[in-house]
Amino acid sequence: MSNDFQNDNVIIEQRKPPDTTMPMVVYALYLASFVVGFTAVIGVVIAYVYRGKGPDWLDEHYRYQIRTFWIGLLYASVATLLTVVLIGIPLLIALAVWLIVRCVKGFRGLQEKRAPDNVDTWLF
């Protein structure tokens, strides 16, 4: 028996939930960037490629991921420059916590099939 139901020549298709594999891969690549630095670049490329190809709540995840990459790059640049005066080291640690929290929030949103909270924020 197929997933289609037929009644008086009308076919009703059951819709399967959208695939959340690629957004999960992007979050995982962001977290893997702590070990292998360039994986975040691969993640943002995937997010750019896949955005606009799913439901709105999934597109919000891609937007959140793209923003996470660019904001994180800005924070990392400033923190790296400030390592000269030793304040950059705690800022880099704070950046790591920030990235982990954003990825965990994203994973949780994907599991609940909803957009991440506060997509436009620069914090969490």
Radius of gyration: 19 Å
> Beta-sheet strand percentage?
5-15%
**Poorly predicted ranges (pLDDT <50, ≥5 residues)?**
none
Count of helices?
4
Morphology call: elongated
* Spatial order of strands in the largest sheet: 1-2
Structural class: mainly alpha
How is the main sheet built?
2 strands, antiparallel
The strand count comes to 2
SSE ordering? EEHHHH
Arithmetic mean of pLDDT: 88
The helix content, as a percent range, equals: 55-70%
Q: Report how far apart the termini are.
A: 47 Å
Overall description:
The protein contains four helices and two strands; from the N terminus they run E-E-H-H-H-H. By secondary structure, it is mostly helical. A two-stranded antiparallel ribbon has the order 1-2. A hairpin with a 2-residue loop joins strand 1 (4-7) and strand 2 (10-13). Helix 1 packs antiparallel against helix 2 (39-50) and helix 1 runs parallel beside helix 3. It is elongated, with a radius of gyration of 19 Å. 19% of the residues are buried. The model has no long low-confidence stretch (mean pLDDT 88).
